[in-house]
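Thread amino acids onto this structure.
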């Protein structure tokens, strides 16, 4: 008899969603930059490590999309923290705005093709990946231009993106527990 396996997607979606909301509360000028330490800790442990763990679990479940998404975005969070922390430790130079724009644009490109994959999945994941694609490109444009308004708009859009991931996770958990559609996905 096959061993029952848990669905790791809600863990990955929550790690991504909560960390994304917290960072974008700063980007959207709702929280001050003095909250960045909290975001970096979340970026290492929940946005980073929890998503990598969820990705490994998806691998064991044979889910290529989930493996690719969760491991990639887990390492996105870990690399973002490194980009921010390493210069303060004297271990790297600060990444210039053009470098950050390129970094974010590449993540936008990756997310755009992952969004295409969601067209065969549920609507809630389509919303997560579409809003994340828009977020990465808005952040890249904000860094490339230095336009504070674009960065603030990106932050507000990022809150929507993170909340959509939290919704998708809640739907998966609650629908499984109640064995019926509590939250439509």
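Threaded sequence (185 positions):
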């Amino acid at each position: 008899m096959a061993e029952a396996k848990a669905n790791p997607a809600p863990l990955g979606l929550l790690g991504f969603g909560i960390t994304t909301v917290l960072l974008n509360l700063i980007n959207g000028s709702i929280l001050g930059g003095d909250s960045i330490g909290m975001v970096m800790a979340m970026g290492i442990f929940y946005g980073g490590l929890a998503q990598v763990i969820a990705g490994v679990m998806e691998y064991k479940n044979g889910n290529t999309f989930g493996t690719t998404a969760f491991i990639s975005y887990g390492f996105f969070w870990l690399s973002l923290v490194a980009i921010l922390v390493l210069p303060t430790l004297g271990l790297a130079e600060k990444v210039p705005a053009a470098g950050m724009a390129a970094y974010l644009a590449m993540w936008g490109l990756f997310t755009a093709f992952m969004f295409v994959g969601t067209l065969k999945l549920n609507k809630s994941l389509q919303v997560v990946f579409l809003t994340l694609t828009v977020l990465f490109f808005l952040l890249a444009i904000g860094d490339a231009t230095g336009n504070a308004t674009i960065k603030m708009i990106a932050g507000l859009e990022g809150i929507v993106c993170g909340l959509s991931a939290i919704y998708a996770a809640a739907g998966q958990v609650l629908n499984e527990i109640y064995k019926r559609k509590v939250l439509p996905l």
